[in-house]
């Protein structure tokens, strides 16, 4: 049975095999996320495992299963899943490297889109972005600020930001806590102040911050108020609101973003990433319910859940 939500959905934020993404792993090691070697890493993983199990139980999610042996089978499974839940287009913001995610997209081009996600401090990062966009058809750049080896507003990154601005593709920049339980609580670099300085230097570059900015929500709203090219993506469970020093709910996050930056800089995402959970319809349904209960008009709902993503991705021409 096809789900009818009364509007189209374009999901700006999914991951293809994020747990097995060697591109991201390399950035983690470069940022010294796993000090002490594999034994110490295993100890940390074991210590945080109860929190992960508790979270899955609270949300009613099954334990993750290993990726399929063939990426083609997993791509087909995602396509089938997205059609079943009536999501019209979906963006894999990571996928095991630029060429891998481009191959996934090419397998289902009517449904899937992808982002480059290479190391911004790597050699020829700007040239690699241009290749990924021009030759492989990717639609943006994703990076995790806690994994940076230098600040976002470092002049060394200016060629990368300049290339993205010239190509007209958005940059999705995760700030704040990285990873699940046992992850990085803060990064050495990549705070909202760096983000705002970079965004002001490149005013035609669309910058998108996922998960409402995580623990930096207040600073993100100030940055977005001062930089009209900064957008907010809504993806994930957003359970981090429980750790804030003041009461904050998903409804309040939507209300404050809507009142501060308006409906045309809020972009829906689910952060769907693994099977057998598959597409997280619960996140979508909760967010849509909240927006309707807040009384958002239909044209604003269409912008948040599809139109803004289409504009940022160049699909509205």
Please state the CA-atom Rg, rounded to the nearest Å. 18 Å
Low-confidence stretches: none
CATH superfamily: Metal-dependent hydrolases
β-strand amount: 5-15%
Number of contiguous helices: 11
What's the CATH class, please?
Alpha Beta
Question: How many strands appear in the DSSP assignment?
Answer: 8
Helix content: 40-55%
Order of helices and strands: EHHHEHEHEHEHEHEHEHH
Main sheet: strands, sense, barrel: 5 strands, parallel
How does the helix and strand content classify structurally? alpha/beta
CATH topology: TIM Barrel
Strand order of the largest sheet: 4-5-6-7-8
Overall 3D geometry? globular
Describe this structure in words.
InterPro entries: ACMSD, Amidohydro-rel, Metal_Hydrolase. This is Amidohydrolase-related domain-containing protein. It comes from Micromonospora echinofusca. GO terms for molecular function: carboxy-lyase activity; hydrolase activity. This protein has helices spanning 22-30, 37-59, 71-84, 98-107, 125-134, 158-167, 192-201, 217-226, 250-261, 281-293, 298-313; strands at 10-15, 89-94, 112-114, 141-144, 171-174, 207-209, 230-233, 266-267. By secondary structure, it is α/β, with parallel strands linked by helices. The protein has a single domain, classed as Metal-dependent hydrolases (TIM Barrel, Alpha-Beta Barrel). The strands form 2 sheets. The chain has a 5-stranded parallel β-sheet. α9 links the parallel β7 and β8. α5 packs parallel to α6 (158-167), α7 runs parallel beside α8 and α8 (217-226) runs parallel beside α9 (250-261). The chain is globular. The relative contact order is 0.15. The model has no long low-confidence stretch (mean pLDDT 92).
